[in-house]
Amino acid sequence: MLAHFALGYNRFGNNNESVFVDQDWPAKIGMQNVPGTHFPVLTFSGQPFQGGGIGAGGRLGSGNRGGSYNGSTIGQADFTYIRGTHNFKFGFENRRYYYNTRGKSGSGDFAFSPNQTALPGFINQTGHSFASFLLGDYANTNREIVGANFGHRWRTAGFYFQDDWKATRKLTLNLGVRWEVIGGLTEVARRMSGLGITTANPNAGGRPGALVFLDDIGRNSFQNTYWKQISPKFGFAYALTQKMVLRGGYGINNTPAISNGFGFGGTLGFNGNIVRNSGNTSIRFAEDSLGNIADRYPDFAGVLPNKSPTLANGQGIDYYRTDGNRMPYVQNWNFGIQYQLPASTVLEVNYIGNKGTRLIAKGFSQPNNLPYSVVQQYGDLLPRPWNASSPIPAPFAGFSGTNLQALRPFAQFTGINDIFPNIGLSSYNSLQTQVTRHFKSGLAILGAYTWSKAIGFTDNAIDAEGVADIFNRNLERSITNYHIPHVAKLSWIYELPIGPNKLVNVGGVAGKIIGGWQLSAIHTFRAGNPVAIQTGGINLPTGNSARPDLVAGQDIVANADAGINFRGFVGGTPYLNRAAFTNPPVFAGGQNVVQRLGTVGPYLPNIRDRHWVSEDMNISKTFNIDEHRNVELRGTFLNPFNRHGIGGLQTNITSPLFGQYTGQQMGARNIEIALRIGF
Fold this sequence. Notes:
The chain is mainly beta. The protein has six helices and 35 strands. The strands form eight sheets. The chain has an 18-stranded antiparallel sheet that branches. A hairpin with a 2-residue loop joins strand 4 and strand 5. The radius of gyration is 32 Å and the shape is globular. The two termini are 41 Å apart.
């Protein structure tokens, strides 16, 4: 029996702050009633000739402040027991993830407009936002108040058992299972808020759906502990002959309980904002300012924490489903043959596949959305403001919003953000071949080719994706953005046959200098990326991805040999045919609401971008001074043939450059020379 115990800890700090944080710049420039956290953020609106867009990214000053610290503590106990033909392994693992935020209240963001220096009645033609700034007259301002710093926690416990069994002289079996218990996301002081989906909302006529707080409902987490994360594993290897081996296996692996992105939600009510704009401050004329930057900044009139159940009314709200901690998992399977060829060469042919389940699919879970059939029923009426003459009844007394908002299941919220939308699916199937020549006689070669297909309706776990109709997810099922059907790679190492006792026998000092040089390279050849056709100018009220129609009888590719339109002029040679696409018809009324969904899917199924060809090369030589000292000279050549490729395909049909290539695929040649001294 062999026992192994381990304890691991890691910590990562992400303090992405301005260099002027906590230097009390507001006091230095005469601001009043604001903390000295950072230099005020100044933004400038209007047309360019009116000062719009001044500064880096359209602003002067940086409000970046505070940061976060995250990491984990992991304890393991592993045991190995060998008995006869069995090699048993079993153990336990406890993972404790943490994410601590360290926020700071802001010193104020100020927006300056040309209006305050414009001629009355000519605010679109006169005035300058920087001139308004010189006067100190702002158009609106806001300042964040940080009332709490949070410490989120997520804990899991795992148990596993595995048996590597030498069943016969030719057959080896690998049998195992892992069981994980996934706790819910918690906060150290239960400072989390979210949607209480059945809680009555007093300012929405008692309709279900209100803001609730963990410490008020007597829970540690919005999520229930999940006890059924069971992952079996099976594998085998069978020697058909002395030169041929069959291998295969099946297993399930789940993701760890960590956040995909930065931070967690559920903080509404614990922090606050001071906002001064035209919506809460009356002015006599459009040219009047709402205040001056030299004036005493308005006081925060609220109380923190603010635990009003109606605090999220009129805005979006976070939603933690009770089963949101059911981790995404992937089923993996493979079957292959390995065959020993002459000359120290091995051939492998494998079928490899997997299926992803419960993947994070942001954009696909929208609890406050409606099916597209609502658009077909109400058409151009949906984006318009609701009024008493609307055919849609008011959801509650005092409602204000659009007709679409009035129809939503939770009309008191503009949207519901499902924090862990674990509803994604994917599948991958591939035939993978590989030929390996082990290093012999100064030469090693590895060549591989993969033919594959990846399908799903989610491409990533961080960014929200465009969805036409969340109630018909099959419309989104297509090839994925990482579907590359053909990939071939060749890598090799070659030691030049020059030097002492080599094919070209050069001895003495000359042999030590010119002998022993190694060349190596990686060559990649792969199919192009999938192509997604985009559009604009049309309105899909219940979705966030309005797509065009495919025109029957038109070829999609106009010119397969189209070059690069570097200068971006209209009329360049297109790769894609603009006549092959058009927008679907819209309802009359001026809102451009589509009468039906476009026929083009997320990606074109049979059209791809240009293929890729790339090479990276290396040359190196080690000079051995003695047993303990050496000097290595290495030259690395990235893209040595300076291939630029053809890239930057414009795929929005509203662009005058649609279908044209406007850039290159890869960067220029890069050469690096390195000298390493070992002692």
